[in-house]
């Protein structure tokens, strides 16, 4: 036997002594000499071990990075399992606001905004390629937006802009606007940009898909880019251990929205237009790991997009301070105030450390602002401008609407006929009223070999995100949804919206069909109507007439039949002149009236009804005849409630 194969000693060969793995690298280990010791086996770390070690290091190399764009780029929505951060720190002496390592994030130093270099890979992730269908830009009918009427009421309304220019917008923001291929401001943007730049409060109504998100993001980010970060943050006691120091985030902007999906969508837009700047957007919402969200905001948060419930949670944990808020935005404000978020919003706005209404700018955006919601919202605004774009509360002429009379038992067969015969391109979104029906109808479509998915409130956040991603990318071009997806979501290339179940509120119908025909593109909307929906028949006719759509003769017959038995048209009504939202300050005594009665008899049109009681004039008032016992009692003056 050749001893050279067993070590380098000249003495008699002895059996090797066993050395536990954890001791094999110690200097007193006779088998260890450098990496191989004197043993001829020359043991060293295997290449597989080295690769795994490198991979482990690489997978965590971005944990401490600053800036929103780590070396992994972007996903379609925020992913808190990839810890790209928005790090950086404030230095109050010389106004420094610099990231630590990530070169794709800009910074603020000595009163100067330093823009990061361009990154082609990040730009592709954020803005897409010109032919990318997942990024919706302007459509073939976009030029018709110039013909949409705009009504702005309030004192000293600024003149609208006609182009994206500097001023009033920051030059760096204009560069990102160009990357997003926005060429011409929409009507809501033409007015909102100078209004926000002038520091005015705003309540804005504009049809769905008309650019409301950019309408508030553009001027807010422009102001942040030019004004720089907050200079008067509470000082840190550097003598304390890090875990005892103040770990609060102090954002300058809070954007509240009612749903997780809309919150993520606004955040994605904020990342896009904050690209290469010092501004660090963050997002928090329920259903996701709060620990990951906390780590994100700890690294810096200048613009926070949040759902009200999760924001309250973080405030209670003393991780978010509202003391430095300059701008408060309520997106889909009418829905938040109407669906149970009012106590949380009042707590956030009135009972925490947020500056008072006189010391901040407050913006409210939605497609509809009923009169009673306007009355409620005025508590959060000061000397505000009411912006009404187009037939506010109505639908777009870009959407071809069709109302079909279908009994409940025939809905499935009619739906299959539509899907089989449809020649429309793009995605199909089907709305139902209940979560159970969403699952049942989705399973039925799958059994009929239609690729479908479903989204509703009982699905987990991960399931909802997967369903939306699959729908957006056309892997499942049919999606069945409840109202969770009806508000605010901007899904490109939705060609057809089907209201399998009509809602009881006409405003919900407006928001539903607004998922198509967005940004000047054309689309189609089909609704299944039967006698169970007669409460919104009159409002539905108003919607069709406003958008120059065909009104079925049978629908008009149902409305005439309703009027024979009640004073009003049924439902909530559309307000004066068919406008769903007009500035109630200009029409304080305008009656509404619930037509065929119901719990909301004081909210509506008052067509053929009686005058509203004085105490409800601010809410629209009014009621119909006969079918509402409370209204009848008031009419006869025998009792009140």
From TrEMBL:
Lineage: superkingdom: Eukaryota
Keywords on record: ATP-binding, Helicase, Hydrolase, Initiation factor, Nucleotide-binding, Protein biosynthesis, RNA-binding
Location of the Helicase C-terminal domain: 398-559
E.C. number(s) listed in UniProt: 3.6.4.13
Composition-biased stretches (Polar residues): 1-16
Top EC category: hydrolase
Catalytic activity: ATP + H2O = ADP + phosphate + H(+)
All copies of domain Helicase ATP-binding, residue ranges: 193-387
Coiled-coil ranges from the UniProt annotation: none
Region (Disordered): 1-98, 565-600
GO function terms (MF aspect): ATP binding; hydrolase activity; RNA binding; RNA helicase activity; translation initiation factor activity
Residue ranges of the motif Q motif: 162-190
Similarity section: Belongs to the DEAD box helicase family. DDX3/DED1 subfamily.
Protein name: RNA helicase
Organism lineage: Eukaryota, Fungi, Fungi incertae sedis, Mucoromycota, Mucoromycotina
């Amino acid at each position: 036997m050749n001893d050279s194969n067993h070590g380098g000693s000249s003495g008699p060969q002895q059996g090797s002594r066993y050395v536990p793995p954890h001791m094999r690298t110690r200097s007193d280990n006779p088998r260890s000499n450098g990496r191989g010791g004197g043993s001829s086996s020359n043991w060293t770390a295997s290449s597989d071990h080295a690769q795994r070690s490198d991979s482990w290091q690489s997978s965590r190399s971005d944990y401490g990075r600053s800036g929103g764009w780590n070396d992994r780029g972007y996903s379609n929505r925020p992913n808190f399992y990839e810890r790209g951060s928005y790090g950086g720190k404030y230095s109050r002496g010389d106004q420094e606001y610099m990231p630590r390592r990530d070169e794709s994030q800009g910074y603020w130093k000595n009163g100067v905004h330093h823009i990061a270099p361009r990154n082609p890979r990040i730009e592709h992730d954020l803005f897409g390629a010109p032919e990318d269908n997942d990024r919706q830009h302007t459509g073939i009918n976009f030029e018709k937006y110039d013909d949409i009427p705009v009504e702005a009421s309030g004192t000293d309304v600024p003149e609208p802009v006609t182009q994206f220019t500097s001023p009033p917008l920051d030059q760096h923001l204009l560069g990102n606007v160009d990357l997003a291929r926005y060429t011409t401001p929409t009507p809501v943007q033409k007015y909102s940009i100078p209004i926000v730049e002038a520091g005015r409060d705003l309540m804005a109504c504009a049809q769905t898909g008309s650019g409301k998100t950019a309408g508030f993001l553009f001027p807010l980010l422009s102001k942040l880019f030019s004004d720089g970060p907050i200079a008067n943050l509470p000082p840190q006691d550097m003598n304390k251990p890090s875990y005892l120091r103040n770990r609060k985030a102090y954002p300058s902007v809070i954007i509240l929205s009612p749903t997780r999906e809309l919150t993520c969508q606004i955040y994605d837009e904020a990342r896009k237009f904050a690209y290469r700047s010092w501004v660090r957007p963050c997002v928090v919402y329920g259903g996701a790991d709060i620990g990951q969200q906390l780590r994100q905001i700890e690294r810096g948060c200048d613009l926070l997009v949040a759902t009200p419930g999760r924001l309250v949670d973080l405030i209670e944990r003393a991780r978010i301070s509202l003391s430095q808020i300059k701008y408060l935005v309520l997106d889909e404000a009418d829905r938040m105030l109407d669906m149970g978020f009012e106590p949380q919003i009042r707590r956030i706005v009135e009972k925490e450390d947020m500056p008072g209404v006189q010391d901040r700018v407050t913006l409210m955006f939605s497609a509809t602002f009923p009169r009673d919601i306007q009355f409620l919202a005025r508590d959060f605004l000061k000397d505000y401008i009411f912006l009404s774009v187009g037939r506010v509360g109505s639908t777009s002429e870009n959407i071809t609407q069709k109302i079909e009379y279908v009994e409940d038992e025939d809905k499935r067969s009619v739906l299959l006929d539509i899907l089989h015969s449809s020649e429309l391109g793009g995605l199909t979104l089907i709305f139902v009223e209940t979560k159970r029906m969403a699952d049942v109808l989705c399973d039925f479509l799958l059994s009929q070999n239609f690729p479908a998915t479903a989204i509703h409130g009982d699905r987990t956040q991960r399931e909802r995100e997967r369903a939306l991603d699959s729908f957006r990318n056309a892997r499942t071009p049919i999606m069945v949804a409840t109202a969770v997806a009806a508000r605010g979501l901007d899904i490109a290339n939705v060609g057809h919206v089907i209201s399998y179940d009509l809602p009881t509120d006409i405003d919900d119908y407006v928001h539903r069909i607004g998922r198509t025909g967005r940004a000047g593109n054309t689309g189609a909307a089909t609704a299944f109507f039967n006698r169970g929906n007669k409460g919104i028949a009159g409002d539905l006719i108003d919607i069709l007439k406003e958008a120059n759509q065909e009104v079925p003769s049978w629908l008009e017959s149902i409305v005439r039949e309703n009027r024979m038995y009640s004073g009003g048209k049924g439902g909530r009504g559309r307000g004066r002149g068919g406008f769903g939202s007009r500035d109630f300050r200009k029409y304080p005594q305008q009656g509404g009236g619930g037509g065929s009665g119901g719990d909301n008899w004081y909210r509506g049109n008052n067509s053929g009804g009686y005058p509203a009681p004085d105490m409800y004039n601010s809410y629209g008032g009014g009621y119909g005849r006969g079918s509402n016992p409370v209204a009848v009692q008031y009419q006869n003056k025998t009792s009140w409630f």
